[in-house]
Design a protein that fits this description.
The chain has 3 helices and 4 strands. The protein is α+β, with helices and mostly antiparallel strands. It is elongated.
């Protein structure tokens, strides 16, 4: 049985899905203005492990990991590099995907980009 720490109750509790047999996981993904570092790799591997555990235990998993492809750091880096935001973020998204592949991390079910949901 999987136990998860409930920060409201301040105790470990048995995991019970809202919908039996189904799990939905949302993870705040990378802000793509530079190459991934060890902390990013940790997030990728930890949540890959969680998703694989659920799948191995016959849960239907919907795993969403967003990409922040617009913020102040991205805008500044693009300006400093004299390149478009799109070119900068696409380069680092590609690098992130290469790193994920090298780590053996499975891709998420969905990977929405912030620019798909906010005006730029």
């Amino acid at each position: 049985m999987l136990k998860i720490y409930n920060s409201i109750a301040r105790e470990k509790q048995d995991f019970v899905p809202i919908i039996p047999g189904k799990v939905k996981i949302y993870v705040c993904g990378m802000t793509v203005y530079d190459y991934c570092h060890l902390g990013h790799a940790r997030v990728l591997v930890v949540f890959d492990t969680v998703v694989r555990w659920f799948k191995a235990n016959d849960f239907n998993v919907s795993y969403v990991r967003n990409i922040t492809d617009i913020d102040d750091k991205i805008i500044k880096r693009a300006q400093d590099n004299n390149e478009s935001i799109e070119m900068l973020t696409q380069r680092f998204i590609q690098a992130m995907n290469e790193d994920s592949l090298a780590l053996g991390v499975l891709p998420p079910t969905y990977e929405p980009r912030a620019t798909s949901y906010v005006e730029t």
